[in-house]
What we know:
Blueprint: E1 2-5, H1 16-30, E2 35-38, H2 48-56, E3 59-66, E4 72-79, E5 85-89, H3 112-123, E6 128-132, H4 143-148, E7 152-154, H5 167-170, E8 173-175, E9 187-191, H6 204-208, H7 219-237, H8 253-259, E10 263-265, H9 267-274, H10 277-282, E11 286-289, E12 293-294, H11 303-312, E13 318-322, E14 324-325, E15 338-341, H12 349-354, H13 356-378
Parallel strand pairs: 1-2, 1-11, 5-6, 6-9, 9-10, 11-13, 12-14, 13-15
Antiparallel strand pairs: 3-4, 4-5, 7-8
Helix pairs in contact: 1-13
Amino acid sequence: MRILIAPDSFKGSLSAIEVANTIKEAAAIEWPELECTTAPLADGGEGTIDTLVLTTGGQKIPVKVTGPLGNQILTHYGVLGDRQTVVMEMANVAGFAMIPDLSRNPRVLTTYGVGELLITAIEDGYQHFIIGLGGSATNDGGIGFLQALGAEFYDEDGNETGVDGQAIFKLQKADLSHLDQRLQTCSIVIASDVDNPLCGKNGATAIYGPQKGIKKSETLMWDTAMQRYATIIEKEVNRNLQYEPGSGAAGGMGFAAMVIGAKRKSGAELVGSYLNLKEKISQSTFIITGEGRTDEQTMKGKLPFYVAHTAAKYRVPVIVLSGSLDANIDELNHVFTSLHSIIPAPFPINEVMENAKPFLLQAARQLFRTMRMAWKLSK
C-alpha cells in the first residue's frame, strides 16, 4: 500500500513541508511498514519558494527590499536546481501575514519591494522568473511594482503620485518609457489560481478588497480608480489587459505583471509539474491532502481540489486532513473520499494555531490506526 502525502500549508502555523513531515511521522508511529511519499505543495502563495527550492535542490538568496509599509525588510528569492530560474513570492514581500491588524489599510501599502526584488535578481544575472501572487496584502494594481521597474506616474499637477495604494487615486498620467530595458529579454510567469479580472463585480477590489481592509462602502470608489489607472496604462502599451483572467490577482499585481509581458499559469499545476505530481498520484493507493481551512472556497480551485481533480483521473481516493472544516461539507463529499479536522475540542483560534503540529500529529495517528485496521480486515 502506497500513501502520497500532498498537503498545502496551514497558513499562519505550519508550512506545507511541516504538514507533510508531521503526517509522515504519524504514519511511522502507527503503521511502520506503510510506504509513504511526501509532496508538499503550494499554489503561488506562502511556501512556494520552499517547496520548489527543496524539490529541485536549489537555494535561497537573501535580499533587502522595501516592505509593504515602506520600511526596509530582509526577504529572499529562490534559485531552482537548474541554476537559471528564480522563484519569488508576494507573500514574503507584500504579504497579508506581514501586516499588523491595525495597519491593514491598502491605501498605505505598496508593492514597490516586489519590483526591487525582481530588479535585484536581474542584476544577479537571471532572466527566467516565477512570481507567486498568493497571500498579498495590497490593492494598488501593482503601481508600486511598476515604479520600482522604472515606470513614472504623475498627478494632475505633474507631481509624482507616490508608490503606495493611494497613488491610483491621484494618477492622471503614466510614462512607461523608462522601464528597465532588461525586462525585454526576461521570461516571467505569474503563478496564481485566481482568475478574476482587474475591475468590475468579480474584480480584485470587489472580491478581495474587504478582507484586505477596504470598507464595502468604498469598493466602488476603489474600483473606479483602478479602472482609470488601468485605462491610462493600456493606452501607453496599446494592449487591453484589465479584463484578462488573473489580472485581478494579488490586488492587481497580475495586471502589472502582464504589462511587462508576464504569462499566467495555474500555481498548483506549475508546482505539481516540478514535483511530478501526476506520476506520484498514479502510483498511489491513497492520497492525504489538507490545508488550514477546508470550505466552499476549496471547490474554487484551491490546492486540495486540484489534487482531487487530478487523482480522479487515476481513480485514486483522496482524504482531507485540515485545520478546520466548514459546517456544511455535503458538496465536498462529492469530491473527497473523507474529510477530517485536526481540532480535538473547542479551542480559541490562537491556541489552535499555536498547537497545530501536536493536533495534526494526533489526528493523523488516529487516521492511520483506522486505515491500518481496515486494510487488515480487507485481506
